[in-house]
Amino acid sequence: QVQLVESGGGLVQPGGSLRLSCAASGSIFSINAMGWYRQAPGKQRELVAAITSGGSANYADSVKGRFTISRHNAKNTVYLQMNSLKPEDTAVYYCNAHGVVALTRVGDYWGQGTQVTVSS
């Protein structure tokens, strides 16, 4: 069974930084893309950033130049470095693994979510 475990959320002041990590575990052969989504109260879940196994990344316009996504393929781990955080970045951040080829199933998986709060 594939599981995604996130870490690194918390409370930070505006202008501060946080680094999120997400590790996928289980009998995994490959993962096409990994990414981060976020959902603020009363809003729809939105893509923040995603990265393919080849290293191609894309970002939401609202985070370009402030957030950096990276990935360690051998560890099935994805990271999100968040700098210059703003109050509007406050949300629950979810890790996503897309196109996972595992022993028992091919599909997409989600983490449980980690809270990021930007406030003074």
Instruction: Sketch the major β-sheet.
Output: 7 strands, mixed
**Alpha plus pi helix count:** 0
What's the overall geometry? elongated
Termini separation: 40 Å
What percent of residues are in strands? over 45%
> How many runs of DSSP E, i.e. beta strands?
11
Residue share in helices? under 10%
Oligomer: single chain
Question: Strand-and-helix sequence, N→C?
Answer: EEEEEEEEEEE
Specify Rg, calculated over alpha carbons. Answer: 14 Å
Class derived from helix and strand content: mainly beta
- Low-confidence region ranges: none
Mean pLDDT: 96
Notes on the protein architecture:
There is one protein chain. The chain has 120 residues and is mainly β. The protein has strands at 3-7, 10-12, 18-25, 28-39, 46-52, 57-59, 67-72, 77-82, 91-102, 106-110, 114-118. A hairpin with a 4-residue loop joins β5 (46-52) and β6 (57-59).
